[in-house]
Amino acid sequence: MTTSPPITVMDDGGAHLENQARHVTIPAGVELTTPVRLAIVGMSGSVAESRHVLRAMAGSKGMIVLDHRGSGTLEQTVEIEVGDGAQLTVIAVHDGERDAVHTASHQARVSRDATLRHTVVSFGGAQVSITPTVVFCGPGGDAELLGLNLTDTGQKHEARIAIDHAAPRCRSRVTYKGALSGAGAHSVWVGDVLIRKNAEGTDTYELNRHLMLTRGARVDSVPNLEIETGQIEGAGHASATGRFDGEQLFYLRSRGIDEASARRLVVRGFFAELLDKIPVPDLAKRLADQVDARLAGEGRHRPALSVTKKESHA
Predict the structure, then answer these.
(1) What would the pLDDT profile of 85-112 be if each residue is shown by its tens digit?
(2) Residue 152 in contact with residue 125, Cβ under 8 Å?
(3) With CB atoms counted within 10 Å of each terminal CB, which end of the chain scores lower, N or C?
């Protein structure tokens, strides 16, 4: 049985919302003063499909937040179009109940001199699998993809990213970070970047970092880079998985901070770079508070010991 999840909409009236907010259009030249917020709530036992089309027309500027909560199974397609010279920020938060299953494909097209800021936060759910893809359709485009996941026992959070530099003089940056604790916690990150033959002047870099807070967790991190032209500004990737910084922990303990609190501070600092880039203050605070709450019991667990790193530059 296929149902449509309920959607609640909040915005400042500058965007055009159609078909129960599944189509959001920021008109040409319009700058929104507050984010458009779509709260997507799944019902227990439901199986739903949804399609969202998010458009920022030429010269426009705005933010759209997709806030996923509740239970059930959701298969979702999000189409993102950023017109010439437009600036669009899309934030997708996945904070469902522990039985929720969410699969989503985010397909973005970035036009000439356009800017896309795309953030994925995965905290809840039994399994969350997000596939963000970006295609540069005109020269001068800029895309920044950020991701943050906090994965506990029995959870699987997956992100498979693909960036297609199909136009010259475009820039892309990918930064994804995750922290895992508990037996069976599983995080998967795959980053694919393709620089086509005609994409001279490309500047791209992707970074993935994971913290293993306990034994029994698993990380799969695979960065890939394919280059068809040597006429680029720069290209590279880096991946590292390991435990938290023992020197930082020692320093905090020497200042009279108990071990559990010290561990939380170290992990909070690990995520600070990404939380600071969420331009919606109340949402950033909510997520930061959730990080603190989820880490409250970590001090009694024994940390993992191994550290692996992979780096490549061109």
Answers:
(1) 999 999 999 999 999 999 999 999 999 9
(2) no
(3) N
Contacts of 259 (CB under 8 A, 6+ apart): 249, 253, 299
CB contact at 8 A, 178 and 187: yes
| Strand ordering across the sheet containing 47-56 | 16-18, 23-26, 47-56, 73-82, 101-110, 127-136, 156-165, 186-195, 218-227
Render pLDDT for 54-94 as a digit per residue (tens, 0 to 9). 999 999 999 999 999 999 999 999 999 999 999 999 999 99
Rounded to two decimals, what is the model's pTM? 0.89
Specify the residue for token string 């698993």: 218
